[in-house]
Description:
Blueprint: H1 3-10, E1 36-45, E2 48-58, E3 63-67, H2 74-82, E4 90-95, E5 98-99, E6 110-114, H3 125-135, H4 140-153, H5 169-181, E7 187-191, H6 199-216, E8 219-224, H7 227-233, E9 236-241, E10 244-249, H8 251-256, H9 261-266, E11 271-282, E12 285-290, E13 295-300, E14 309-314, E15 320-321, E16 331-341, E17 345-352, E18 358-364, E19 378-382, E20 388-391
Parallel strand pairs: 3-8, 3-9, 6-7, 7-8, 13-20
Antiparallel strand pairs: 1-2, 1-4, 4-5, 9-10, 11-12, 11-14, 12-13, 14-20, 15-19, 16-17, 16-19, 17-18
Amino acid sequence: MTAASISSIDSPVTSSSPSSGAGTAGxxxxxxxxxxxxxxxxxxxxxxxxxxxxxxxxxxxxLVSILGPSGSGKTTTLMIIAGFSEGAxxxxxxxxxxxxxxxxxxxxxxxxxxxxxxxxxxxxxxxxIAFPLRMRGEPRSxxxxxxxxxxxxxQLSAFGKxxxxxxxxxxxxxxxxxxxxxxxxxxxLLDEPFGALDKSLREDMQAELRALNRKxxxxxIHVTHDQAEAMAISDRIVVMNKGRIEQVGTPHQLYFxxxxxxxGSFVGESVFxxxxxxxxxxxxxxxxxxxxxxxxxxxxxxPLAEGQEAALMLRPESVRLGAxxxxxxxxxxxxxVDTVFGGERRMYTVAAVQGGEHFKVxxxxxxxxxxxxxxxxxxxxxxxxxxxxxLS
Length: 392
């Protein structure tokens, strides 16, 4: 993002702006978040459908992540909210009950942080953070107070006189967050903000963002392709694919009750066994017959007709080695195909003796013997039928 585009976000807000009057005294204020309502957004890039009738409600003070692969429409959605979308689209965006999609970016009162921060390199940290306040014509005393509070909020009070080149990547990210919230916007938009950071620093910044959201109450819409990041910080996750919303839910709901094979495969790691639904088995379960002839049982998501094509989904951590306590239709004999050591856990790939379907078994390293299982060894695997989900 160029300095010009930063200026377009941070230039003065008129009285008709959705955030007009928010946080006019003191620093970033708690409880300032407002509800965001997206109604029937559609957009095309020539012959490509970027968004296909997308509607979404984000509650005031909620932290929602939009998750999906490249080209799913997540960034396009964010750019329309921010006012930076190129070309025509249909639909509406409302913040706090007021329509904003017909306003220029500088009158929407929304904070935006992109992956490429583009802090002003010649300005100190204090001046970078003060920039949106000065563009709004705030008195010097107000600017000083609010910049000081914003620096304290992101734990950079001792770094105000430094320039960006003297900061680490995580510190520059904190400066960008402080600049985005210093004028108390009701909504903060984040587009892959931590993508360029290493794993440890990324996790630290995720915790910082979550703490910031809880302390200020700002409504946060966060775009990412990193499902672990979305699971770690979000109140709810929106999973998008090919311009559409596949499912909206809490991290727990998406992980344990995906409504489609795409969501089950994109959120966490899963193994899918193809086959067909069988007879009901009681307790919300039904039988499942794999293409290789295995007769298993699993929990049913949406109702399935007997004989309907389906897939049985199993998370690797739900599968255990051994047959002790195995329920009917939830165990089988297998042969080890491969093993991968991942530090905390070891992942085994095994093939069913009958049918040859492949399963994955994730075992804590602390539970392993000194000598791990080798390829070709015969094992028994089992799981709880309620941890196997049968999807159409």
